[in-house]
Every structure is written in structure tokens, then in C-alpha cells.
Amino acid sequence: MAVTDVRGALALALPTARVQRLRQIQAGAAELRLPTYVVGGFARDLLLGRPPGDFDLVVQAADEADASAGPRLAGALARRWGGEVTTHRAFGTATWFHPAQENIDFATARTEIYTRPGALPEVTPAVSILADLSRRDFTLNALAFRVDGDGFGEMLDPYQGQDDLAARRVRVLHGQSFQQDPTRIFRGVRYEQRLGFRISPETLNLIAPALTHIAAVSGERVRRELELIFAEPQASAMLSRLAGLGVLAAVNPALSWNAESARRVAVLADLPVAEWKLDRDLVRDSAYLALLLSEADQDAAGRALERLTASRDLQGAVTGALGLRLPANTRPSEAVTVLDRLPPAAVAAAAVLWPEQRHVLEQYLAAWRFVRPALSGDDLVALGLKPGPEFRRWLGQLRAERLDGAELDRDGELALVRQWARLEDHVGPEEAHD
Ligand code: ATP
Ligand code: MG
Asked: What's the CA gap between 422 and 218, in Å, rounded?
């Protein structure tokens, strides 16, 4: 594979401020004599000509017992160029927070030891960047380029990740990879569909035997992987790939994704969630989970949400959406009575789940839920009526009249309440002596 011109690619891809940041790191690392590398997604995207994301830096310590190399470099840079550093000593990592610019993560090179499939690994410092790259998920992420001193721009590609990028291939580093960490299956599908690559045949063959190990992965970690997928433009293709590989069923048998789910989820992008002042991520995650569970019965869906240790808000929104059925031709006031009992995120998720109800649900979220009568309880008291349980009912009835299209102003509402009060023999003082 041709030698990559990292310097040239950086100059093309990055704004000057980010290049300057790298130059600061180059000088600081050279001064401390610490071989320092940009690793993973940034290197991958740079080589692909895609807009690269955050810098992820790995600093190689001179001594195996030394986990402080990353934090030391971050500290020196902050002293020289400003900002603050937060250190996680146990992990040998640090973040350089800069007031005016992006925050940068520094990690001391480390290796991982997997004690049991699916569990989080034990992390220990490693002398070499190569050992650090050997713990990574795919060859296309096991890439690094050097940024310290004269070595700036030198590529490290011990697993021929550049060949795989050129061949548009997602490939694991070794046969135990998915068993050690089954969340990599989700990651692999995410890269495959995001980049328009193919998981290589050998890597694909490793998925089926690793599916049993998904049971050992915590609900939080699986949910995190699913949520990362929901956030991607190609989410639907990713879920359908996961379904085809048996991964969804291995997480929980209630989860499924098919052409109909794919068709329905398209609505999500059109919902004005920000205008409705709803939590965008909650609506998105609820809508996807509701679609994933739309073939399951209520109990099975509940168990799947437990498996994923979904938060109360998320569970409430998903089960609310799944259970929502408005009868055809429901009057707005009747719809509001039902919908007011649900969290708004459930209503938004239901608009994705049930296309035939979408129009009504959108009107509820945009307008109906805010409709209130002009009169308040105080106005009724001022009218001479005696406070009681009927106040709530009358104000509710006024709201219903407005929702169902009555043209009511304040006077109109007063007239209606007087009429109801008279009909119900609820007599106020002014009328008592008629
Ligand atoms: P993305 O564009 O999705 O953020 P990324 O490569 O930046 O891609 P991160 O999740 O930010 O991905 O992780 C950073 C790096 O850490 C990856 O490039 C990969 O090398 C490594 N990594 C992350 N998760 C795993 C994992 N489960 N197993 C092995 N290596 C991992
Ligand atoms: Mg990243």
C-alpha cells in the first residue's frame, strides 16, 4: 500500500486552529521525549477523506509500570498553552480542557486482559503503542500516526488497516475478538453500514459462534450500542443487518426489525421534536425501541426493556407508545383525555409507530395539549359560585368545547358555566333572589 501523506491530508482536512493544536502537542511531546500517536477513528476518517472527529491521543511510556505518561503530557500542555486537566490515574488517562478550543483526550498506552467473555477487561499499562493497537476492535481502527517531534506524520498500521480501507472491508484483528467483547459485533455492523463497507467473510463467520456470549453483556452496554446506532443516519440498515445476523434475537427474542419498521421510522426525521420542546434523544430512542418491539406482546416487550435496563423515562415512553390506540374518528377532546395520561415522548414515539394516528398525535403535541379555557377557578368564584368538585369538571368541559371547535371567548365561557350551574341547581348568591 502506498505511503500515506498524513501531513498533506491533515492540511486539507483540518482548520488551522486544529493543526496548531497538533503542533503544540508535537513540541510538548518531543520535549518530554514521549512517543505520541493519534489513534483510531480520527486516523481512519482522515485516510478515508471523511471529516475527522475528535483527536484520540495515545502516549507511550518508557516504563511498563508508568501509567502517568498521558496525564504528564496533558499537564505540560495545559501549563504551556492554558486550560485545565482532569486525570483518571487508575486508567492512565487525562483530558485537556481548553476554554476556547476542543477538549483532547490523552491515554497512556495500555493492554487489556479478558478474564471472561462479555465482561469488561482488566486494563494494564503497556510499553508499546503496538500492544495498545492490538486490543482494538477492527483493523480500520487499529491505525495510528505519530505526532511527536520529527516523527510527525509517520503511520503505524500493524494489521494492514489501510488495505482494508481500500478494499472497503471491516475485519477483526483475531479470531477471539467477538467472544472477548461481543459489543464489537454491533460496532462492526455500525462501521459497515455507515461507511458502505462489507464485513469480511472470515469476520462474518465469527459472529454466529459468538452470539451466545451476548447474554453475558450488561443491559447498559447493549443499550449503549443500540443508542449509538439510533443516532446514525443509516440506523435502519444497521438494525436490519443485526436482525439478519441473529444479533437482535440474541439480545432478546422480542426484538425484531423488518421492512415495515424501516418504512415507519422514516417519519422520525420529519417530526418537529424541537418545536414541541421534547428531549430529542429520548424521542428517538423511544421510537426505535418501540419499533423494535412492535411485534412483541406487552409482557415480552416489558422483559426486553428490563434486559436493556432502560431508564424509567425510556420504559414509560416505549410502553406508552406501544399501548396507544385511539379509536377511529375520536373527537379531539376524547383524544386529549387519553393522551394527557402519557408522557409527551410516548406520544411522539407513537406518531412514528402508528402512521394512521400520526396526524392526530402531531396536533396534540403541537397544539391540543396547550389548550386551556379562558376562565379559571377564581373567575367562577367571582361569578358567585361556591367552589366544589364541579369546578374541575366545568373547566374540563370548557377545555373540551374549545378542543372540539367551539368558538368561545371569555363571555361565551361565562354564559356556558352559568347555564351548567343553573341546570345543575348550583346556585350562586346573585341568582339566589331571582
Ligand atoms: P466513531 O466514529 O464511531 O466515534 P471511533 O473509532 O472514534 O469511531 P470510539 O467509540 O470513539 O470509536 O472509540 C475510539 C477507539 O477505541 C476506536 O477507534 C477503537 O480503536 C477503540 N475501541 C472502542 N471500542 C472498542 C471495543 N469495544 N473494542 C476494542 N476497541 C475499541
Ligand atoms: Mg470517537
From this structure: 63
More confident residue, 220 or 114: 220
The closest-lying atom of ligand 1 relative to the alpha carbon of residue 56 is: 14
Nearest-5° angle of CA 377, CA 383, CA 386?
65
For 155-177, how does the pLDDT look when each residue is reduced to its tens digit (9 = 90+)? 999 999 999 999 999 999 999 99
Q: Is 271 helix (H, G, I), strand (E, B) or coil?
A: coil
Ligand nearest to the CA of 44: 1
C-alpha cell at 53: 472527529
Does the Cβ of 137 fall within 6 Å of ligand 1? yes
Which residues, in sequence order, are bridge partners of residue 172? 138
Cβ–Cβ < 8 Å for 139, 171: yes
- H or E stretch including 95? strand 93-97
161 within ligand 1 shell (Cβ under 6 A): no
The pLDDT of residue 124 is 76
350 within 8 A of 341, measured Cβ to Cβ: no
Q: How far is the CA of 137 from the centre of ligand 1 (A)?
A: 7
Cα separation, 430 vs 434, in Å, equals: 8
Beta carbon of 132 within 6 Å of any ligand 1 atom: no
Q: Which residues are CB-neighbours of 304 under 8 A, at least 6 positions away? A: 251, 252, 254, 255, 292, 293, 296
The three grid cell numbers given for residue 152, joined into one nine-digit string = 510527525
Amino acid at the residue 33: R
Ligand 1 nearest atom to the CA of residue 137, by list position? 29
In a 10 Å sphere around its CB, with 0-12 CB exposed, 13-18 middle and 19+ buried, how is residue 39 labelled? buried
Rounded CA separation 51/55 (Å):
12
Compute φ and ψ for 286, nearest 5 degrees.
-65, -45
Task: For 305-343, write each residue's pLDDT tens digit.
Answer: 999 999 999 999 999 999 999 988 899 999 999 999 999
**Grid cell in block for residue 144:** 495510528
Place of cell 503544540: 24
Q: Is the CB of 157 under 6 A from ligand 1?
A: no
- The answer to whether 276 and 247 have CB atoms below 8 angstroms apart is no
* Closest to 75 (Cα-Cα) out of 61, 63, 93, 90: 93
CB within 8 A of 80, min separation 6: which ones?
24, 28
Q: Which residue stretches of 258-372 are H helix?
A: 259-265, 280-292, 298-307, 312-323, 332-339, 344-353, 358-366
The predicted model scores a pTM of 0.92
